[in-house]
Amino acid sequence: MSMELFTFPQAPSRDAVEWPGTPIGKENVITRTKSRTVIFDKSIDRQEGRRDELVKAAVAHMAAAGERESLFLGDVVIHGIRVRCFTNSPHLIDFWMDNWYSPEEWREVTGHTPPREPQVTVYALCGVDQEEAAYYSRNTNTIVFFNTSYYGQLKSWVLGAVGRVLAEEYGIHSIHGACVEKAGKGVLYIAPTGTGKSTSVYGLASFPDARFHSDDWVYVRYTFRTRDGRRIAPTLIGLPSGEIISGYRVFRWLEENARTYPQASVVGLDLGNASISLSVVDLDLDQPVEAYAYTSEKIFYLRTNLVESFPLSVSGILRAKMENVPDVTLHFLEQHSGMLDELVDALRAAEGEIGAMFRAMSAEEARVLLARLIAFDNARAMLDITQVLPRERVFTNPMEPTRLSTVFLIKRAFEDPVVLESLSLEKFMGRLLIGETPEKKREIAYNAYRAVDDAEEQAFVRRLEEEVKLRYREGWFDRLYEIYREHQDAPETLVEEFELFRMLHKACRCYDLNTILMEAPAVNNKKEAVQKTIELIARVVEEEPAELRLTLADYQAYLSR
After folding, report:
1. Is there a contact between 379 and 305 (Cβ–Cβ < 8 Å)?
2. Which of 259, 283, 307 is the last residue of a domain?
3. What is the pLDDT of residue 462?
4. What count of other Cβ atoms lies within 10 Å of the Cβ of residue 259?
5. Which is nearest to 154 in space by CA: 104, 105, 83, 54?
């Protein structure tokens, strides 16, 4: 029988959905649901009237609530899209307003006027006479959550809904990834959980010439140079016939039709989000496409186990509001004693306030504190990253871009001795189409947040994979994207996503990074493996090699040059 590693305080009543946890940081809220709801449906538009039925139930509950409970309305702006949330959960509205920019904050920070009306509407209500569930209507940009106050799922679904609007209407790519800028170059990591994405971000951010950008989500704009030297991210093409090409479709159209329709009108956004109007002939299409990444969150909703790979983050985490930080058992402390002792030693040796705080604690107090932050994968903190890194080394304006130069798809596959290699378009797209996690789960584009019919997309990819394996028994993976392009029946959501990823590969050097250096003969421990991985990333970012393939046997020779 397995022994319990951590526990949560019991709910005060049978119907409670959120309650106080054992104190840590600024506050610690425990939610009944601590992951995705059992019932979740992103395809309710298939059932006529289902969206209206759910919204009617939500509105009826709010109308009947009266003075019995508090109701909250929170408007926020996420990359220029206004989102309105109705909720009766104090926890959800608290994290919601911390996480994003209010319309007033957006105007103050960016200098831009936010939209007057919401483009995405959210109902997140507890105590409703409905099953615990999450629903999404793509046609109406509506999200309905019943009887769950776990913020992580709400955040992810809202990001997906906003991403759909941005891709469809503006050609802006929403990517589940992390980003850091080094020596003026933007570096984007795309990866499933558990492969070292956060470790890589914070490791590279520790360099003196680096700036932290984002930890979980970025918005990427693909831009063309104009003949007068500006940069434009096209959002709309207007043809003389009156036909309109919009959103992600504009890129392929420009490649295939620009010379035929030089006087077609182009509407787009410059790097500062100002609108530009010109003609196709005004674009210098001989110049390369460039990708620019923008951060998404005001305050970052991060896993508290970040302290394991970035111990100094504990200084900010302990000032933060937290969600679902557990109590740990003696068994957990015994099982992880070596790692906890290393962290305590590192923090006691730190300079400044954080070092003084840990030196003042007993070793046991420090171990329990750190263990609580690490024990549960879904324990979260609402972290102001400027409390961890100097403000000047953090992107704090959501409209300040970094130009992306390098993209790493991260995996952890111990059976594969290749540590790092450059990716052709076919390999890059194949990896993202399959999207296999370390647990062999399929997650297209490593992004479960996407506002799509997951079952429909996965079924198409499975059929595609079977077809390719029948046609090419060896080397089938490298043919996956080629055969995908032959199909006219791919779900529109998949076409949208991979057209945008095609542009990302066009604009950046793309590499496969396998975080397995702990298996290298000369590496003694995890800390050394992480250090060498970060060195390898930094070298590749600096040199941007077009062709590179390094294995466990020869990566050190590349580093030693």
Report:
1. yes
2. 283
3. 96
4. 9
5. 83
**312 falls within a domain:** no
The string of DSSP codes covering 145-167 is EES---HHHHHHHHHHHHHHHHH
Average pLDDT over residues 387-403: 94
Cα distance between residue 446 and residue 433, in whole Å: 9
Q: Which of 263, 283, 303 is the last residue of a domain?
A: 283
- First CA to last CA across the chain, in angstroms? 52
Q: How many domains does the chain have?
A: 2
Average pLDDT over residues 168-173: 96
**C-alpha distances in Å from residue 440, one per residue of 186, 374, 411, 429:** 30, 24, 11, 18
pLDDT tops 80 at residue 67: no
Q: Write out pLDDT tens, residues 471-524.
A: 998 889 999 999 999 999 999 999 999 999 999 999 999 999 999 999 998 888
Q: Which long-range contacts (CB under 8 A, 24 or more apart) does 346-355 make?
A: 346/311, 347/311, 347/312, 347/314, 350/311, 350/312, 353/315, 354/312, 354/314, 354/315
Q: Note whether 51 and 157 are same-domain residues.
A: yes
Domain with 234, as residue range(s), is 227-283
Work out the mean pLDDT of the chain and round it to a whole number. 94
pTM for this model (two decimals): 0.94
